[in-house]
Design goal:
The complex is a heterodimer. Chain A is mainly alpha-helical. Chain A contains twelve helices and no strands. Chain A is 77% helix and 0% strand. In chain B, strands 1-2 form a two-stranded antiparallel ribbon. In chain B, α1 crosses α4 and α6 runs antiparallel to α9. Chain B is an all-alpha fold. The chains are: A mainly alpha, B mainly alpha. At the A-B interface, α3, α5, α6, α8 and α9 of A face α1, α2, α4 and α9 of B.
Chain lengths: 274, 236
Protein backbone atom coordinates (compact mmCIF):
# COMPACT_ATOMS: atom_id res chain seq x y z
CA UNK A 1 0.00 0.00 0.00
CA UNK A 2 1.83 3.11 -1.22
CA UNK A 3 -0.19 5.61 0.79
CA UNK A 4 2.05 8.59 -0.01
CA UNK A 5 1.77 8.03 -3.77
CA UNK A 6 -2.02 7.63 -3.54
CA UNK A 7 -2.28 10.88 -1.60
CA UNK A 8 -0.11 12.67 -4.17
CA UNK A 9 -2.23 11.43 -7.12
CA UNK A 10 -5.46 12.44 -5.37
CA UNK A 11 -4.26 15.98 -4.75
CA UNK A 12 -2.39 16.68 -7.97
CA UNK A 13 -4.51 15.10 -10.70
CA UNK A 14 -6.27 17.14 -13.38
CA UNK A 15 -8.66 14.63 -14.96
CA UNK A 16 -12.45 14.89 -15.15
CA UNK A 17 -12.68 12.45 -12.24
CA UNK A 18 -10.48 14.72 -10.12
CA UNK A 19 -12.92 17.51 -10.92
CA UNK A 20 -15.99 15.52 -9.83
CA UNK A 21 -17.37 15.73 -6.29
CA UNK A 22 -16.45 13.01 -3.80
CA UNK A 23 -20.12 12.00 -3.37
CA UNK A 24 -20.48 11.35 -7.11
CA UNK A 25 -17.37 9.16 -7.15
CA UNK A 26 -18.49 7.28 -4.04
CA UNK A 27 -21.80 6.58 -5.79
CA UNK A 28 -19.90 5.50 -8.91
CA UNK A 29 -17.75 3.08 -6.87
CA UNK A 30 -20.86 1.79 -5.05
CA UNK A 31 -22.62 1.10 -8.36
CA UNK A 32 -19.60 -0.81 -9.68
CA UNK A 33 -19.35 -2.86 -6.47
CA UNK A 34 -23.10 -3.57 -6.59
CA UNK A 35 -22.62 -4.78 -10.18
CA UNK A 36 -19.78 -7.04 -9.07
CA UNK A 37 -21.94 -8.47 -6.29
CA UNK A 38 -24.96 -9.26 -8.49
CA UNK A 39 -23.08 -10.43 -11.56
CA UNK A 40 -21.74 -13.94 -12.04
CA UNK A 41 -20.93 -13.58 -15.72
CA UNK A 42 -17.27 -13.94 -16.64
CA UNK A 43 -17.61 -11.85 -19.81
CA UNK A 44 -19.48 -9.03 -18.12
CA UNK A 45 -16.95 -8.85 -15.28
CA UNK A 46 -14.14 -8.82 -17.83
CA UNK A 47 -15.93 -6.00 -19.67
CA UNK A 48 -16.33 -4.07 -16.39
CA UNK A 49 -12.62 -4.50 -15.63
CA UNK A 50 -11.61 -3.31 -19.11
CA UNK A 51 -13.95 -0.31 -18.80
CA UNK A 52 -12.42 0.60 -15.44
CA UNK A 53 -8.98 0.20 -17.00
CA UNK A 54 -10.05 2.64 -19.70
CA UNK A 55 -11.12 5.03 -16.96
CA UNK A 56 -7.66 4.75 -15.38
CA UNK A 57 -6.17 5.98 -18.68
CA UNK A 58 -8.52 8.98 -18.54
CA UNK A 59 -7.29 9.92 -15.05
CA UNK A 60 -3.89 10.70 -16.67
CA UNK A 61 -2.16 9.04 -13.75
CA UNK A 62 0.53 6.32 -13.91
CA UNK A 63 -1.54 3.43 -15.25
CA UNK A 64 0.76 0.58 -14.29
CA UNK A 65 1.18 1.85 -10.74
CA UNK A 66 -2.60 2.11 -10.21
CA UNK A 67 -3.28 -1.28 -11.76
CA UNK A 68 -0.58 -2.79 -9.53
CA UNK A 69 -2.11 -1.26 -6.38
CA UNK A 70 -5.53 -2.60 -7.36
CA UNK A 71 -4.15 -6.05 -8.25
CA UNK A 72 -3.21 -6.86 -4.65
CA UNK A 73 -6.55 -8.57 -3.78
CA UNK A 74 -6.16 -10.84 -6.81
CA UNK A 75 -3.49 -12.79 -4.90
CA UNK A 76 -6.02 -13.73 -2.23
CA UNK A 77 -8.78 -14.21 -4.79
CA UNK A 78 -6.57 -16.79 -6.54
CA UNK A 79 -6.12 -18.63 -3.23
CA UNK A 80 -9.88 -18.50 -2.64
CA UNK A 81 -10.55 -19.68 -6.20
CA UNK A 82 -8.09 -22.55 -5.73
CA UNK A 83 -9.80 -23.54 -2.46
CA UNK A 84 -13.19 -23.66 -4.22
CA UNK A 85 -11.88 -25.22 -7.44
CA UNK A 86 -14.54 -27.19 -9.31
CA UNK A 87 -12.59 -27.88 -12.49
CA UNK A 88 -13.86 -24.77 -14.27
CA UNK A 89 -11.47 -21.96 -15.18
CA UNK A 90 -14.47 -19.69 -15.80
CA UNK A 91 -15.69 -20.03 -12.17
CA UNK A 92 -12.18 -19.32 -10.90
CA UNK A 93 -11.93 -16.37 -13.29
CA UNK A 94 -15.21 -14.95 -11.97
CA UNK A 95 -13.82 -14.89 -8.40
CA UNK A 96 -10.57 -13.23 -9.50
CA UNK A 97 -12.37 -10.69 -11.70
CA UNK A 98 -14.79 -9.79 -8.90
CA UNK A 99 -11.81 -8.98 -6.67
CA UNK A 100 -10.04 -7.01 -9.41
CA UNK A 101 -13.12 -4.97 -10.42
CA UNK A 102 -14.11 -4.01 -6.86
CA UNK A 103 -10.53 -3.12 -5.93
CA UNK A 104 -9.96 -1.06 -9.10
CA UNK A 105 -13.22 0.87 -8.52
CA UNK A 106 -12.09 1.71 -4.98
CA UNK A 107 -8.57 2.61 -6.10
CA UNK A 108 -9.98 4.90 -8.84
CA UNK A 109 -11.99 6.60 -6.10
CA UNK A 110 -9.04 7.14 -3.77
CA UNK A 111 -6.48 8.18 -6.41
CA UNK A 112 -8.84 10.87 -7.69
CA UNK A 113 -10.26 12.10 -4.36
CA UNK A 114 -8.33 13.59 -1.43
CA UNK A 115 -9.05 11.63 1.75
CA UNK A 116 -10.56 14.54 3.70
CA UNK A 117 -13.15 14.85 0.90
CA UNK A 118 -13.98 11.14 1.14
CA UNK A 119 -14.27 11.32 4.94
CA UNK A 120 -16.40 14.46 4.89
CA UNK A 121 -18.73 12.81 2.34
CA UNK A 122 -19.23 9.64 4.38
CA UNK A 123 -19.18 11.60 7.65
CA UNK A 124 -22.95 12.21 7.84
CA UNK A 125 -23.67 8.46 7.90
CA UNK A 126 -20.97 7.64 10.45
CA UNK A 127 -20.77 8.42 14.18
CA UNK A 128 -18.57 11.42 15.02
CA UNK A 129 -15.96 9.35 16.86
CA UNK A 130 -15.49 7.19 13.74
CA UNK A 131 -15.15 10.22 11.44
CA UNK A 132 -12.61 11.84 13.76
CA UNK A 133 -10.84 8.50 14.14
CA UNK A 134 -10.65 8.08 10.35
CA UNK A 135 -9.16 11.54 9.95
CA UNK A 136 -6.58 11.10 12.72
CA UNK A 137 -5.71 7.58 11.57
CA UNK A 138 -5.01 8.89 8.10
CA UNK A 139 -2.90 11.71 9.49
CA UNK A 140 -1.10 9.34 11.91
CA UNK A 141 -0.41 6.95 9.06
CA UNK A 142 1.92 9.47 7.43
CA UNK A 143 3.63 10.20 10.74
CA UNK A 144 4.14 6.47 11.36
CA UNK A 145 5.30 5.68 7.83
CA UNK A 146 8.02 8.29 8.13
CA UNK A 147 8.98 7.09 11.61
CA UNK A 148 8.99 3.46 10.42
CA UNK A 149 11.27 4.31 7.53
CA UNK A 150 13.71 6.08 9.85
CA UNK A 151 13.46 3.30 12.43
CA UNK A 152 14.28 0.51 9.97
CA UNK A 153 17.20 2.51 8.57
CA UNK A 154 18.43 3.20 12.11
CA UNK A 155 18.11 -0.45 13.13
CA UNK A 156 20.04 -1.60 10.05
CA UNK A 157 22.81 0.98 10.45
CA UNK A 158 23.30 0.16 14.13
CA UNK A 159 23.20 -3.61 13.62
CA UNK A 160 19.74 -4.08 15.13
CA UNK A 161 18.62 -6.17 12.17
CA UNK A 162 21.41 -8.60 11.40
CA UNK A 163 21.31 -11.59 9.07
CA UNK A 164 21.21 -14.86 11.01
CA UNK A 165 20.36 -13.38 14.45
CA UNK A 166 16.61 -13.89 14.19
CA UNK A 167 15.66 -13.82 17.88
CA UNK A 168 17.63 -10.63 18.45
CA UNK A 169 16.02 -9.16 15.32
CA UNK A 170 12.51 -9.92 16.59
CA UNK A 171 13.29 -8.33 19.99
CA UNK A 172 14.72 -5.19 18.37
CA UNK A 173 11.92 -4.97 15.81
CA UNK A 174 9.28 -5.29 18.55
CA UNK A 175 10.94 -2.61 20.67
CA UNK A 176 10.95 -0.48 17.53
CA UNK A 177 7.17 -0.91 17.16
CA UNK A 178 6.77 0.06 20.82
CA UNK A 179 8.89 3.14 20.19
CA UNK A 180 6.76 3.98 17.15
CA UNK A 181 3.63 3.75 19.28
CA UNK A 182 4.99 6.06 21.99
CA UNK A 183 6.51 8.63 19.62
CA UNK A 184 3.57 8.51 17.23
CA UNK A 185 1.18 9.09 20.12
CA UNK A 186 3.12 12.18 21.26
CA UNK A 187 3.01 13.63 17.76
CA UNK A 188 -0.65 12.75 17.28
CA UNK A 189 -1.62 14.37 20.61
CA UNK A 190 0.23 17.54 19.61
CA UNK A 191 -1.54 17.55 16.25
CA UNK A 192 -4.94 17.06 17.85
CA UNK A 193 -4.18 19.83 20.36
CA UNK A 194 -3.29 22.23 17.54
CA UNK A 195 -6.51 21.29 15.71
CA UNK A 196 -8.56 22.04 18.81
CA UNK A 197 -6.86 25.42 19.30
CA UNK A 198 -7.78 26.23 15.70
CA UNK A 199 -11.42 25.53 16.49
CA UNK A 200 -11.74 21.95 15.26
CA UNK A 201 -15.10 20.64 16.43
CA UNK A 202 -15.28 17.21 14.89
CA UNK A 203 -16.31 18.29 11.40
CA UNK A 204 -13.75 17.82 8.68
CA UNK A 205 -13.66 20.63 6.21
CA UNK A 206 -13.51 19.03 2.79
CA UNK A 207 -14.99 19.37 -0.64
CA UNK A 208 -15.57 23.09 -0.24
CA UNK A 209 -13.78 23.87 -3.48
CA UNK A 210 -16.23 21.79 -5.57
CA UNK A 211 -19.62 22.54 -4.15
CA UNK A 212 -21.57 22.60 -7.41
CA UNK A 213 -22.54 19.48 -9.27
CA UNK A 214 -21.23 19.67 -12.82
CA UNK A 215 -20.70 17.70 -15.98
CA UNK A 216 -17.86 15.72 -14.37
CA UNK A 217 -20.24 14.41 -11.71
CA UNK A 218 -22.83 13.40 -14.31
CA UNK A 219 -20.16 11.64 -16.36
CA UNK A 220 -18.95 9.62 -13.35
CA UNK A 221 -22.52 8.74 -12.37
CA UNK A 222 -23.47 7.85 -15.95
CA UNK A 223 -20.53 5.43 -16.25
CA UNK A 224 -21.50 3.82 -12.94
CA UNK A 225 -25.15 3.60 -13.97
CA UNK A 226 -24.22 2.06 -17.34
CA UNK A 227 -22.13 -0.64 -15.65
CA UNK A 228 -24.89 -1.33 -13.13
CA UNK A 229 -27.53 -1.45 -15.85
CA UNK A 230 -25.48 -3.93 -17.85
CA UNK A 231 -25.04 -6.09 -14.74
CA UNK A 232 -28.80 -6.10 -14.09
CA UNK A 233 -29.51 -6.88 -17.73
CA UNK A 234 -27.20 -9.89 -17.80
CA UNK A 235 -28.22 -11.12 -14.34
CA UNK A 236 -31.95 -11.04 -15.20
CA UNK A 237 -33.57 -14.39 -15.97
CA UNK A 238 -30.34 -16.27 -15.46
CA UNK A 239 -28.30 -14.16 -17.84
CA UNK A 240 -28.47 -13.05 -21.45
CA UNK A 241 -25.26 -14.40 -23.01
CA UNK A 242 -25.84 -12.55 -26.30
CA UNK A 243 -25.39 -9.17 -24.61
CA UNK A 244 -22.17 -10.29 -22.89
CA UNK A 245 -20.30 -10.40 -26.19
CA UNK A 246 -21.51 -6.94 -27.25
CA UNK A 247 -20.66 -5.44 -23.88
CA UNK A 248 -17.20 -7.03 -23.98
CA UNK A 249 -16.59 -5.77 -27.53
CA UNK A 250 -17.70 -2.27 -26.49
CA UNK A 251 -15.40 -2.22 -23.46
CA UNK A 252 -12.44 -3.40 -25.58
CA UNK A 253 -13.12 -0.56 -28.03
CA UNK A 254 -13.35 1.98 -25.20
CA UNK A 255 -10.09 0.67 -23.75
CA UNK A 256 -8.29 0.96 -27.11
CA UNK A 257 -9.58 4.52 -27.63
CA UNK A 258 -8.59 5.49 -24.08
CA UNK A 259 -5.12 3.97 -24.43
CA UNK A 260 -4.67 5.82 -27.73
CA UNK A 261 -5.80 9.05 -26.06
CA UNK A 262 -3.31 8.57 -23.22
CA UNK A 263 -0.50 7.71 -25.61
CA UNK A 264 -0.91 10.39 -28.24
CA UNK A 265 -3.22 13.19 -27.09
CA UNK A 266 -1.02 16.01 -25.76
CA UNK A 267 0.83 13.67 -23.37
CA UNK A 268 3.24 12.46 -26.06
CA UNK A 269 3.23 9.00 -24.54
CA UNK A 270 4.40 10.21 -21.13
CA UNK A 271 1.42 8.70 -19.33
CA UNK A 272 2.25 5.23 -20.58
CA UNK A 273 5.97 5.57 -19.88
CA UNK A 274 5.26 6.60 -16.30
CA UNK B 1 -3.97 -13.48 11.19
CA UNK B 2 -7.70 -13.84 10.96
CA UNK B 3 -8.38 -11.05 8.48
CA UNK B 4 -10.57 -12.32 5.65
CA UNK B 5 -9.16 -11.31 2.27
CA UNK B 6 -12.32 -12.49 0.54
CA UNK B 7 -13.32 -10.36 -2.45
CA UNK B 8 -16.69 -8.68 -2.89
CA UNK B 9 -19.52 -10.74 -4.31
CA UNK B 10 -18.17 -14.14 -3.31
CA UNK B 11 -19.91 -14.60 0.04
CA UNK B 12 -23.72 -14.94 0.18
CA UNK B 13 -25.55 -11.64 0.65
CA UNK B 14 -27.29 -12.81 3.84
CA UNK B 15 -24.01 -13.43 5.69
CA UNK B 16 -22.51 -10.13 4.50
CA UNK B 17 -25.67 -8.29 5.66
CA UNK B 18 -25.60 -10.15 8.99
CA UNK B 19 -21.98 -9.05 9.43
CA UNK B 20 -22.89 -5.39 8.85
CA UNK B 21 -25.87 -5.55 11.21
CA UNK B 22 -23.83 -7.20 13.97
CA UNK B 23 -21.04 -4.64 13.49
CA UNK B 24 -23.52 -1.74 13.64
CA UNK B 25 -25.01 -3.09 16.88
CA UNK B 26 -21.63 -3.67 18.57
CA UNK B 27 -20.32 -0.34 17.28
CA UNK B 28 -23.26 1.61 18.70
CA UNK B 29 -22.90 -0.28 21.99
CA UNK B 30 -19.17 0.55 22.06
CA UNK B 31 -19.79 4.23 21.30
CA UNK B 32 -22.40 4.43 24.05
CA UNK B 33 -19.96 2.77 26.44
CA UNK B 34 -17.17 5.27 25.77
CA UNK B 35 -19.55 8.23 26.01
CA UNK B 36 -18.44 9.03 29.54
CA UNK B 37 -14.68 9.12 29.00
CA UNK B 38 -12.53 12.04 27.92
CA UNK B 39 -12.40 11.50 24.18
CA UNK B 40 -9.98 14.39 23.62
CA UNK B 41 -7.24 12.21 25.06
CA UNK B 42 -8.46 8.97 23.53
CA UNK B 43 -9.06 9.99 19.91
CA UNK B 44 -5.35 10.59 19.12
CA UNK B 45 -4.68 7.20 20.70
CA UNK B 46 -7.33 5.56 18.46
CA UNK B 47 -5.71 7.28 15.46
CA UNK B 48 -2.19 6.15 16.26
CA UNK B 49 -3.17 2.56 17.18
CA UNK B 50 -5.28 2.24 14.03
CA UNK B 51 -2.41 3.62 11.94
CA UNK B 52 0.00 1.22 13.68
CA UNK B 53 -2.26 -1.70 12.76
CA UNK B 54 -2.23 -0.57 9.11
CA UNK B 55 1.56 -0.16 9.16
CA UNK B 56 1.78 -3.66 10.71
CA UNK B 57 -0.24 -5.01 7.80
CA UNK B 58 2.18 -3.46 5.31
CA UNK B 59 5.19 -5.15 6.96
CA UNK B 60 5.16 -8.65 5.55
CA UNK B 61 7.27 -11.35 7.17
CA UNK B 62 8.77 -12.68 3.96
CA UNK B 63 9.52 -16.39 4.47
CA UNK B 64 5.97 -17.24 5.60
CA UNK B 65 4.02 -14.43 3.83
CA UNK B 66 2.44 -13.40 7.14
CA UNK B 67 1.53 -9.89 8.15
CA UNK B 68 0.99 -8.85 11.74
CA UNK B 69 -2.28 -7.19 12.79
CA UNK B 70 -1.41 -5.92 16.31
CA UNK B 71 -5.09 -6.13 17.24
CA UNK B 72 -4.40 -7.63 20.67
CA UNK B 73 -2.05 -4.71 21.36
CA UNK B 74 -4.94 -2.43 20.35
CA UNK B 75 -7.24 -4.26 22.77
CA UNK B 76 -4.74 -4.00 25.65
CA UNK B 77 -3.96 -0.31 25.09
CA UNK B 78 -7.42 0.98 24.15
CA UNK B 79 -9.74 -1.35 26.04
CA UNK B 80 -12.51 -3.41 24.39
CA UNK B 81 -14.91 -0.63 23.30
CA UNK B 82 -12.35 1.75 21.78
CA UNK B 83 -10.44 -1.17 20.25
CA UNK B 84 -13.58 -2.30 18.42
CA UNK B 85 -14.04 1.23 17.05
CA UNK B 86 -10.37 1.28 15.98
CA UNK B 87 -10.77 -2.07 14.23
CA UNK B 88 -13.78 -0.75 12.30
CA UNK B 89 -11.76 2.31 11.24
CA UNK B 90 -8.86 0.12 10.09
CA UNK B 91 -11.13 -2.21 8.12
CA UNK B 92 -12.89 0.72 6.46
CA UNK B 93 -9.59 2.36 5.49
CA UNK B 94 -7.86 -0.75 4.17
CA UNK B 95 -10.94 -1.71 2.15
CA UNK B 96 -10.45 1.59 0.30
CA UNK B 97 -6.99 0.36 -0.73
CA UNK B 98 -8.54 -2.86 -2.02
CA UNK B 99 -7.16 -4.88 0.94
CA UNK B 100 -10.22 -7.07 1.54
CA UNK B 101 -13.63 -6.38 0.04
CA UNK B 102 -15.76 -3.36 0.94
CA UNK B 103 -18.83 -5.50 1.50
CA UNK B 104 -16.98 -7.77 3.95
CA UNK B 105 -15.92 -4.89 6.21
CA UNK B 106 -18.72 -5.86 8.62
CA UNK B 107 -17.58 -9.47 8.88
CA UNK B 108 -13.91 -8.51 9.13
CA UNK B 109 -14.73 -6.07 11.93
CA UNK B 110 -16.52 -8.82 13.85
CA UNK B 111 -13.60 -11.24 13.46
CA UNK B 112 -10.75 -8.82 14.16
CA UNK B 113 -12.82 -6.97 16.76
CA UNK B 114 -13.30 -10.27 18.59
CA UNK B 115 -9.52 -10.69 18.53
CA UNK B 116 -9.03 -7.26 20.18
CA UNK B 117 -11.81 -7.69 22.74
CA UNK B 118 -10.74 -11.24 23.67
CA UNK B 119 -7.14 -10.04 23.84
CA UNK B 120 -8.05 -7.38 26.39
CA UNK B 121 -10.07 -9.70 28.64
CA UNK B 122 -7.56 -12.55 28.43
CA UNK B 123 -4.73 -10.14 29.25
CA UNK B 124 -6.62 -8.96 32.35
CA UNK B 125 -7.33 -12.58 33.31
CA UNK B 126 -3.71 -13.71 32.89
CA UNK B 127 -2.49 -10.65 34.79
CA UNK B 128 -4.71 -11.61 37.75
CA UNK B 129 -3.61 -15.23 37.63
CA UNK B 130 0.12 -14.91 36.86
CA UNK B 131 1.06 -11.59 38.49
CA UNK B 132 4.29 -11.35 36.51
CA UNK B 133 6.04 -7.99 36.78
CA UNK B 134 7.26 -7.76 33.18
CA UNK B 135 3.78 -8.58 31.75
CA UNK B 136 5.46 -10.19 28.72
CA UNK B 137 3.97 -13.64 29.26
CA UNK B 138 0.49 -12.36 30.05
CA UNK B 139 0.28 -10.40 26.82
CA UNK B 140 1.94 -13.14 24.74
CA UNK B 141 -0.47 -15.81 25.97
CA UNK B 142 -3.45 -13.48 25.58
CA UNK B 143 -2.41 -12.78 21.98
CA UNK B 144 -1.86 -16.47 21.19
CA UNK B 145 -5.23 -17.54 22.54
CA UNK B 146 -7.06 -14.62 20.93
CA UNK B 147 -5.54 -15.40 17.53
CA UNK B 148 -6.57 -19.03 17.84
CA UNK B 149 -10.14 -18.08 18.81
CA UNK B 150 -10.57 -15.39 16.15
CA UNK B 151 -9.24 -17.75 13.47
CA UNK B 152 -11.85 -20.25 14.65
CA UNK B 153 -14.53 -17.56 14.26
CA UNK B 154 -13.21 -16.85 10.75
CA UNK B 155 -13.50 -20.55 9.93
CA UNK B 156 -17.04 -20.49 11.32
CA UNK B 157 -17.90 -17.65 8.92
CA UNK B 158 -16.39 -19.54 5.97
CA UNK B 159 -18.36 -22.65 6.97
CA UNK B 160 -21.60 -20.71 7.40
CA UNK B 161 -21.09 -18.94 4.08
CA UNK B 162 -21.52 -22.25 2.29
CA UNK B 163 -24.79 -23.05 4.01
CA UNK B 164 -26.89 -20.23 2.61
CA UNK B 165 -30.63 -20.07 3.42
CA UNK B 166 -31.51 -21.07 -0.17
CA UNK B 167 -29.44 -24.22 0.21
CA UNK B 168 -31.03 -25.01 3.58
CA UNK B 169 -34.39 -24.60 1.80
CA UNK B 170 -33.09 -26.91 -0.92
CA UNK B 171 -32.22 -29.58 1.67
CA UNK B 172 -35.73 -29.19 3.20
CA UNK B 173 -37.28 -29.78 -0.23
CA UNK B 174 -35.17 -32.85 -0.81
CA UNK B 175 -35.94 -34.29 2.63
CA UNK B 176 -39.67 -33.63 2.31
CA UNK B 177 -39.68 -34.98 -1.25
CA UNK B 178 -41.11 -31.78 -2.74
CA UNK B 179 -38.37 -31.44 -5.31
CA UNK B 180 -35.98 -28.50 -5.43
CA UNK B 181 -33.00 -27.27 -7.37
CA UNK B 182 -30.47 -30.02 -7.77
CA UNK B 183 -28.24 -27.40 -9.31
CA UNK B 184 -27.92 -25.77 -5.91
CA UNK B 185 -26.89 -29.09 -4.39
CA UNK B 186 -24.20 -29.24 -7.06
CA UNK B 187 -23.07 -25.78 -6.00
CA UNK B 188 -22.64 -26.99 -2.44
CA UNK B 189 -20.63 -30.00 -3.60
CA UNK B 190 -18.51 -27.68 -5.71
CA UNK B 191 -17.83 -25.35 -2.78
CA UNK B 192 -14.81 -25.24 -0.49
CA UNK B 193 -13.76 -28.55 1.00
CA UNK B 194 -14.18 -27.28 4.54
CA UNK B 195 -12.29 -29.97 6.51
CA UNK B 196 -9.34 -29.61 4.11
CA UNK B 197 -9.47 -25.81 4.38
CA UNK B 198 -9.67 -25.93 8.21
CA UNK B 199 -6.76 -28.39 8.39
CA UNK B 200 -4.66 -26.15 6.13
CA UNK B 201 -5.44 -23.11 8.29
CA UNK B 202 -4.60 -24.87 11.55
CA UNK B 203 -1.39 -26.30 10.12
CA UNK B 204 -0.11 -23.08 8.51
CA UNK B 205 -1.27 -20.43 10.97
CA UNK B 206 0.34 -21.44 14.32
CA UNK B 207 3.79 -20.24 13.21
CA UNK B 208 2.30 -16.82 12.44
CA UNK B 209 0.33 -16.81 15.70
CA UNK B 210 3.47 -17.54 17.73
CA UNK B 211 5.43 -14.84 15.95
CA UNK B 212 2.68 -12.23 16.34
CA UNK B 213 2.15 -13.20 20.00
CA UNK B 214 5.85 -12.82 20.80
CA UNK B 215 5.96 -9.46 19.00
CA UNK B 216 2.84 -8.32 20.91
CA UNK B 217 4.39 -9.45 24.20
CA UNK B 218 7.64 -7.63 23.49
CA UNK B 219 5.84 -4.44 22.36
CA UNK B 220 3.65 -4.45 25.49
CA UNK B 221 6.75 -5.04 27.64
CA UNK B 222 8.55 -2.10 26.00
CA UNK B 223 5.59 0.28 26.22
CA UNK B 224 4.97 -0.72 29.85
CA UNK B 225 8.59 0.18 30.66
CA UNK B 226 8.41 3.58 28.89
CA UNK B 227 4.75 4.63 29.31
CA UNK B 228 3.08 2.35 31.90
CA UNK B 229 -0.03 4.56 31.84
CA UNK B 230 -0.83 3.29 28.35
CA UNK B 231 -0.92 -0.36 29.43
CA UNK B 232 -2.25 -0.11 32.96
CA UNK B 233 -3.91 3.32 33.35
CA UNK B 234 -5.22 2.46 36.82
CA UNK B 235 -1.67 1.98 38.15
CA UNK B 236 -0.29 5.20 36.65
Amino acid sequence: MDVSAIDYYANHGTSFLHGARAVSKILFASLVIASVVISGSFYLLLAVYLSLLALVFWTRLPVLKIVTIAAYPAIFAVIFAAASWNGSFVSAGVIVLKALCAALAMVILIVTTPYPDVFSSIGPVLPRIVTEGLFLTYRSLFILLELTDNLIKGLRVRGGLTHGKYIKNVVNFSSGIGLLLVRGLDLSEKFYGVLNIRGYGGRISGGGRRDKTGVNDFTALAIGALIFGAAILTARDGGLPTYDVYILALSVSVLIVSAAYALFQKTGGKAWKR
Amino acid sequence: MSHMHIPDGVLPVWIVTAGWIATAIILSFSIRRVGGIDLKRKIPLIGIISALMIVGMTLEIVPIAYHINLTVLAGIVLGPALAFIAVFIVDLLISMFGHGGVTVVGLNTIIIGAEAVLGYYLFQLFREVMRNKSIFWESTLAALLSLFLSTSIMLGVVYASHVSPEKIEDIKHLVSGTGGGTGEMQTREDGINFPRFAKAVFILCPLGWILESVITGLVVKYVFRVRPDLILPQQA
